[in-house]
Amino acid sequence: MTDLGQKKLPLEDMHQAAGARFGPFAGWSMPLQYAAGVMKEHLHTREHAGLFDISHMKLFTVSGAGASALLSKACPIDAEALTERQSKYTFFLTETAGIIDDLIITRLGPTRFMVVANAGNAAEDEAHLTALAEDFDCKVTPLDRVFLAIQGPEAEAVLKAAGVDGSAFAFMTGFEPRENWFMSRSGYTGEDGFEIGLPEADARNLVAKLLADERLIWIGLAARDSLRLEAGLCLHGQDISKDTDPVAAGLLWAIPKTLRTEGTFIGAEPLHKKIALGAGEKRVGLKPDGRQPVRAGASLFDETGAAVGRVTSGGFGPSAGHPVAMGYLAAPLAKSGAKVFADVRGTKVPVDVHSLPFTPHRYRKG
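Given the sequence above, the corresponding structure tokens read:
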């Protein structure tokens, strides 16, 4: 733990040596930015490749004859239908269909899955899944791994030069390239890239090889946030939470069509009702006029001054070239081109509803 009571990343000394400026996030002391600065880190990821230490996130294996049944109970997913090496974005839901956490689940074998959970929810996720597992013939095992993300159009080439070849795999696939390693072609930037969970000693060796390549630099949490916001990707605890559901959040695409009307997963009946009724408010992209960013927490108003929504994430989009934000609006206004107003320290800033993402996704599809 640090002096501030935050957990330390296993590779903290490497971040210190790289000149990282640290700050608290989800109970961890995290590198916010490095010497290059947020703008350059963001653009370098979009143009070349960025290295992110995401070891604050948590990996679990779920193994045993009842593993797929457990995951299909815990999430609105048909885990048994996943093919080996297929990854799927999904969520843990409350009994009222609120989003406890969003996750990526990968099938590693006939009775073995990997679950990747968010840092702020790791303890709750582990307790939730472990409690549910008591009714199934399976075991939930939290892993102690360094977790790295390599993101950007040159990510595949940089990794291959470092001796890790992921060229045979498409976006949203995952596998175990060697003992105690997990590697998926996925990420949180809208770019092509990989996430790798591995033991600390292996991570130190890999990082040293990666950083010897001038195409790749360390990227901090601040640029990670601007990258994911431009890509229209949700941050749990801001854009989605137990108080929001997949319908309002615009995440029904992650739920198989059959499970939108049937299924026995936790929160199924309330979710089916919400789908049938339609969302009263919807998550949207927001583009403020001018250069002034609109931040999370700002209230949104229509032209009459009536409150119609709220901003959940906001900042400047270096690749988009203008401020970008996301938030929730009353359904009648939640359409591209609609205009609302954000309260920024008492000033009403005009904001256009904008389609998501702000920058195109560039995933490796085939």
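The helical segments are 12-17, 38-47, 67-74, 122-133, 155-161, 200-211, 221-230, 268-277. Try to locate this feature in the token string yourself.
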